[in-house]
Design goal:
The chain has 155 residues and is of the alpha+beta class. It has a single domain, classed as 2-Layer Sandwich (Beta-Lactamase), CATH 3.30.450.40. It is 35% helix and 25% strand. It is built from 4 helices and 6 strands; from the N terminus they run ααβββαβββα. The chain has a 6-stranded antiparallel sheet with strand order 3-2-1-6-5-4, sandwiched between helices. Strand 1 and strand 2 form a beta hairpin. The radius of gyration is 14 Å and the shape is globular. The N and C termini lie far apart (32 Å).
Length: 155
């Protein structure tokens, strides 16, 4: 997808979600809507969901796509790398990423955005996979970080 088209699509999703989020202040309801909108509006998204920190474990939450790993081994894979670095990770080829966790062998590229609550604490990650290598770029990174921040805004 070309950059202009991708940027426009993210901008429209931002407006759509800003219209939906005032209907509930529940974080998980908002994240569920975010996941649904993203998964159905971006044709290169293969798996779209969240993993949450729970008693030192990273446990799957709501998602759309094929069956996911229920728990991700601590300090392994892209999700834990993003949590430990406290920053978004864009991986062009997951098979070249050290310690990648292959929940589905069809995944080829991935972007993981830390989810920070109102206090700035990481509570989990937004994890998106694609069946094509190199699907995610700076446009995805910036737009997804903004969308995740919107989950915690007061409307």
């Amino acid at each position: 997808m070309d950059q202009k088209k991708k940027t426009g699509r993210y901008e429209r999703m931002q407006m759509q979600l800003e219209g939906l989020f005032p209907k509930s202040d529940n974080t998980y309801a908002r994240l569920s809507s975010l996941i649904a909108v993203l998964h159905h509006k971006m044709d290169y998204y293969f798996w779209t969901g969240c993993y949450y920190l729970n008693d030192g474990k990273l446990v799957v939450g709501q998602y759309q796509g094929p069956v996911a790993c229920m728990e991700l081994k601590k300090d392994t894979g892209v999700c834990w790398a993003a949590i430990n670095a406290q920053e978004t990770f864009v991986v062009e080829d997951v098979h070249a990423f050290p310690g990648h966790i292959a929940c589905d062998s069809r995944s080829q590229s991935e972007i993981v955005v830390p989810i920070k609550n109102e206090k700035g604490e990481i509570i989990g990650v937004l994890d998106i996979d694609s069946k094509e290598k190199g699907s995610f770029d700076q446009v995805d990174k910036e737009a997804l970080e903004k969308l995740v921040r919107t989950v915690f805004q007061t409307f």
